[in-house]
Design a protein that fits this description.
2% helix, 6-stranded mixed sheet, mainly beta, 6-stranded antiparallel sheet, single chain, elongated
Length: 177
């Protein structure tokens, strides 16, 4: 598993880009310590220190604005495989929190969570099976909605496990003669 901590910044982390997907797409920002807004966002990185990437929901941002943080999958494509799973910490604290999605290369939502999740970092793992993926955060109704991600772990693999083979059909009953 390759871990990205964004210690040197988002754009300095190989394969990562943020914002730039159009006029209404905004960037995640690298931060250490508390966000600029009271009663929303992390007060520190995972475990009390370290960097994270976050969406700043304060003005001039408005409800429905989209923030993107995209990974091109290069750690996996360099080995001839795709991203199989993404493990990450998320922080979604604030009265007007929006929705954080993880999407695959086709833009399909693989994981989604919305609303205030409390003032703490939570960890999750998402099966993605895609050449690349993105974090997409849609801003909620107000400024108390700074969402953050940190310590993103990318695992490489071929594809989802195959479903078990179907059992053979039962034998035909003997026909009456």
């Amino acid at each position: 598993m390759k871990i990205f901590d964004f210690n040197n910044g988002i754009e300095a982390s190989p394969g990562w880009s943020t914002g730039g997907g159009g006029p209404a797409t905004y960037a995640f920002l690298k931060k250490e310590g508390p966000t600029l807004s009271y009663r929303t966002g992390p007060s520190a990185g995972v475990g009390g220190s370290g960097p994270y990437a976050y969406a700043e929901a304060s003005s001039p941002r408005v409800q429905g604005d989209l923030f993107t943080l995209t990974y091109d999958g290069s750690a996996c494509s360099d080995t001839g495989s795709s991203v199989s799973t993404v493990t990450f910490y998320y922080h979604m604290y604030g009265a007007t929190m929006g929705t954080l999605n993880v999407t695959n290369a086709a833009g399909e939502v693989a994981w989604s969570l919305g609303g205030d999740q409390g003032n703490s970092w939570q960890q999750t793992t998402v099966d993605i099976y895609s050449p690349s993926f993105a974090f997409e955060y849609t801003r909620g109704s107000g400024w108390e909605g700074d969402a953050a991600v940190a310590l993103v772990g990318v695992s490489c693999g071929a594809g989802p496990p195959s479903p078990p083979a179907a059992p053979p059909p039962p034998p035909n009953p003997p026909s009456p003669t």
